[in-house]
Amino acid sequence: MKVKDKSDHRTAKGNKKNLVSESRQQILDAALGLFAQKGYAATTIREIVDTVGITAPSLYYYFGNKEGLYRELMQTYSAKIDSVLESHLHTSECAKNRLKDLVDKIFLRVIEDKNFFRLMFTIYYGPSNGAPYCDFILYHVKIHAAIKKIIEDGIAAKEFQPGNSGHMTWIIRGVVQLAMEEQIKDDREKIDRQRLQKILDLIVDRFGRPPSIA
Amino acid sequence: MKVKDKSDHRTAKGNKKNLVSESRQQILDAALGLFAQKGYAATTIREIVDTVGITAPSLYYYFGNKEGLYRELMQTYSAKIDSVLESHLHTSECAKNRLKDLVDKIFLRVIEDKNFFRLMFTIYYGPSNGAPYCDFILYHVKIHAAIKKIIEDGIAAKEFQPGNSGHMTWIIRGVVQLAMEEQIKDDREKIDRQRLQKILDLIVDRFGRPPSIA
DNA sequence: GTCTATAGCTTGATAGAC
DNA sequence: GTCTATCAAGCTATAGAC
């Protein structure tokens, strides 16, 4: 990965000379990919700048240090998740459709920003690897709460059978979590979007029916 | 964390002088804890030996290098998981009980060897952090297959309603996965053993009943 | 804004005494 | 078996020219 041949730098630089510095964004993109793939600590400044085709001092010029670069990435993508969770609050569908819609939106976000979610999971489950603290628990809690709210609304509206909404929430979240994780790993049989929808149908359908006589 | 005062070493050594070297096991224990907490790459040889109260050459004497130490840990604990999955094959209970029993056994193993599972999840989801390759996918596949087998047996025995056993497997595995992950993280509301059992009852109960008329 | 050059530190690992 | 002492390599970050 280490490029010893310095002419590579000159070539890369030459190719982009006509553009008004897009280095900043290129650094962000390269860093996200490398952080997601190798982890925060394991990703070196050298690798990032070599990927972009610039030198270290340029990176420090834009972001101050490694932490500043990381923080900017977190801020950008966290805002995108928040917007999904907030946008979802203003629907007046039935509980079943709201649940399916929320899950689908979260899933689509994972597909689109796969590298960010990879990084998020990496840091959430497992050591932060020296990465500056970022409150990812918050997103698990927010998603959990959003699902639970819909289920409780569904019970209140007699759409779902009364029962332990907490348990029901864990079931939904388990499948969602697994689907996200399968999506993030790309070397295995996946739960794709359609399959997730079908599984959700199966669960939601049973939620709507009375339990067997104990 | 770095112990500068070298008298610490002497004290620790003095306390154990009467024991025929238990350094080896102490190194393994300390390394597992640190790898799980900080990751493979982020854990330094110095930290491990400082934790035990010995010096680096002793570690190299026993394990050759960092990778050798890691490999020995993986081998030891992987064997324990295998023994759970194998021991479970020889039961002749009903599907419902087999499912509950398998899940409970896996869950108990997670609780007992929490640090190993932490490390395993860390490396499985997320970058290996330079850790030598270890086929953790295998365990996910094995667990998945074991659950699916039981469900299909249950359907064949008319204990569960016919349906998509693949989807049913994902639902069970989602909850199991989430319970494991919650257990590994220790700063959040957990799915404890009892709760997992109740959730499983809820799911399995519904598996045994016909779907609503579409 | 981007470079060359390098300081200053931490790391995994080893030589060799006891 | 365990130590002291030390090395070479790799890291983040910066000084200063252009």
Number of strands of chain A: 0
Q: What oligomeric arrangement do these chains adopt?
A: homodimer
Strand percentage of chain A:
under 5%
- What's the total helix number of chain A? 10
Of all chain pairs, the largest interface belongs to:
A-B, 47 and 47 residues
Overall structural class of chain A, as computed from helix and strand content, comes to: mainly alpha
Question: How would you describe this protein?
Answer:
Two copies of one chain form a homodimer. Helices cover 69% and strands 0% of the residues of chain A. With 214 residues, chain A is an all-alpha fold. Chain A has a single domain (6-207), classed as Orthogonal Bundle (Tetracycline Repressor, domain 2). In chain A, helix 2 (23-38) crosses helix 7 (114-124), helix 6 (95-112) runs antiparallel to helix 8 (137-156) and helix 6 packs parallel to helix 9 (165-184). Residues 1-20 of chain A have low confidence and may be disordered. Chains A and B meet through helix 2, helix 7, helix 9 and helix 10 of A and helix 2, helix 7, helix 9 and helix 10 of B. The first copy, chain A, binds a DNA duplex (18 and 18 nucleotides) through residues 9, 13, 21, 23, 44-46, 54-58, 60-62, 65-66.
